Amino acid sequence: MDMEKVNSMDFGEFVDVFGNVIERCPLIAAAVWSQRPFSDLEDLEQHFSAFIDALPQAGQEGILRCYPDLAGHELQRGTLSAESQREHSAAGLTSLGVEERLRLAELNARYRARFGFPFVLAARLSDREAVPRELARRLHRPPALELRTALGEVKKIGHLRLADLLGAQSARM
User: Fold this and answer.
1) Is 172 exposed, middle or buried (0-12, 13-18, 19+ CB in 10 A)?
2) Less Cβ crowding at N or C end of the chain, within 10 Å?
3) Which residues neighbour 52 within 8 Å (Cβ) at sequence distance 6 or greater?
4) How far is residue 4 CA from its own chain's centroid?
């Protein structure tokens, strides 16, 4: 899809197409729509990032709470968004053994208890061995640093999802 098509979308179409760039946050796409026209993928991505950055901490934490636990209950129940399902699959998280799932569930629970939001990681840029290592590493970080890191991961995920939608290369991270 080219930027001319993006810029010509009406509100409903834009939200339908871009509403899950930030997991389960179509309101962000709704706000970004009003910033048209966009010059390119980077410009569009910057508007999503700027919206996130402008939120108070409670709003930023709310965005993080919209993300599922990696390899968590939503994966087991089959209720992940299509985007999250593809990302889990790309990282090998859909084929974990019982012990691996239990280890991730325990780490996810500890992380959520410590920070108040789920562990967010651009899973497509990781793999099934690295995910629990990174989760364990980040579990011990200061809360303010972890909030910034988690929001950075949201932006990486958004970048990859936008690149998918626009058929662009996603090498820049």
Assistant:
1) exposed
2) C
3) 22, 28, 60, 63, 151, 154, 155
4) 25
Query: pLDDT tens for residues 107-158?
Result: 999 999 999 999 999 999 999 999 999 999 999 999 999 999 999 999 999 9
Q: Let me know: does 105 contact 154? Beta carbons within 8 Å.
A: no
Q: Which amino acid, residue 36?
A: R
Alpha carbon distance 151, 49 (integer Å): 9
Whole-number Å distance between alpha carbons of 108 and 121: 12
Which residue type does 154 have?
A: V
Q: How far apart are CA 42 and CA 105, in angstroms?
A: 35
- Cα separation of the two ends of the chain: 21
Q: Is the distance from CB of 126 to CB of 137 less than 8 angstroms?
A: no
DSSP 93: G
Rounded to an integer, what distance in angstroms lies between the CA atom of residue 146 and that of residue 148? 5
